Amino acid sequence: MSLSLRKKRAVARAKAAGVDCLLVTHLPDVRYLCGFTGSNAALVLAGGRAVLFTDGRYTAQAKAEAAGSRVVIARKPAVTAACEWMEAAGIQRCGFDAAQTTVAALEVMRKSVSTKVRRGLFQAVEPLVAGLREVKDAEEVATMRKAALLGCQLFDGMLSFMQLGLTEVAVAAELEHAARLAGAEAMSFETIVASGERSALPHGRATQAKLPKRGFVTLDFGVVVDGYCSDMTRTVHMGKAQPDEREVYDAVLEAQEAGVAKVAPGVTCAEVDEAARSVLRTAGMDKYFSHSTGHGVGLEIHEGPRLAAKQTQVLAPGMIVTIEPGVYMPGRFGVRIEDMVLVTATGGEVLTPSVKAWIEL
After folding, report:
1. Cis peptide before 305 (omega within 30 of 0)
2. Start and end of every Peptidase M24 domain (predicted)?
3. Distance from C-alpha of 35 to C-alpha of 91, rounded to nearest angstrom
């Protein structure tokens, strides 16, 4: 999808929401709409006009990346310059993303315009751009496929690297080093390596703890390729497992595969969540599953839709979501398995096809 079409769709959504223009300050949204990747930006979409405000550090970059937008280099905060421009342009109702705008930011916006227009100019609207970003176009899917496959490649390499005596930090560092050498721009988030009892922490940061002689090791990581994130989790076992450890792993794998199998157009997010959760409920383990089944992924690691109970949003072709049930038993161990899944016209396609079967190292 071209940037011009994305902007047109955003403007149409703004019009439907009853506003004359859209003020975009959330940087992933700015990138999605105009291509600019700098760290300071405010984008105004008003009818057929797209005006990007940034500072002098990005003069050349903005003109190259946001060629389809007018670029204004401001000597003041970008959002202040954008608001002043809107008042001068006679904008009556400006929509801003209520979910991405702090009270402090809104106060800056209001102080940037005269008191005569301050009261009615700014209108909070639902996350219009975030909704557009949920459905990926063919180019986005291709990029995310590359990121996902790179993640699989990295996991496969870690299987031969992990051994007794290594710390969690050493494992994370090796994975991240390999990722950068393989072409990743960055990691999608802080790499999770949680071993032994620490595997019961859903977001256990890598520490100086050494990999156990016997026990689980959970790796949750992702890479960024051309701005788009990947996300995957695998849990492996060091040494000979106890029967209950294998029982939990098999239940989580069954739940994860049930969630993946449920992904299809027209299915609600709650139905996918229930497909995975019901397997753990039958196994008597659902009380140890403490989070939602998944979330969307894209320019940000956590996007819509959210796959959780009571979420009535319907999946649509082009969405890319995670399916990541887990069982976490405090003081003992935890298991999580996660894939990225593309919603296709007929079902779901796993983008992270590396091995999920039981692995003992």
Report:
1. yes
2. 143-345
3. 24
Task: Measure the CA–CA gap between 83 and 121, rounded to whole angstroms.
Answer: 10
- Round to the nearest angstrom and report the end-to-end CA distance of the chain: 44
Pick the CATH number of 3-132 from 3.40.50.720, 1.10.10.10, 3.40.50.80, 3.40.350.10: 3.40.350.10
What residues does each domain of the chain span?
Answer: 3-132, 138-350
pLDDT tens, residue order, the chain (361 aa): 799 999 999 999 999 999 999 999 999 999 999 999 999 999 999 988 999 999 999 999 999 999 999 999 999 999 999 999 999 999 999 999 999 999 999 999 999 998 877 778 999 999 999 999 999 999 999 999 999 999 999 999 999 999 999 999 999 999 999 999 999 999 999 999 999 999 999 999 999 999 999 999 999 999 999 999 999 999 999 999 999 999 999 999 999 999 999 999 999 999 999 999 999 999 999 999 999 999 999 999 999 999 999 999 999 999 999 999 999 999 999 999 999 999 999 999 999 999 999 999 9
**DSSP letter for each residue of 276-316:** HHHHHHHTT-GGG--S-SEEE-SSSSSEEEEE-TT--PBP-
Same fold, 3-132 and 138-350: no
The span from the CA of 91 to the CA of 83, in Å, is 10
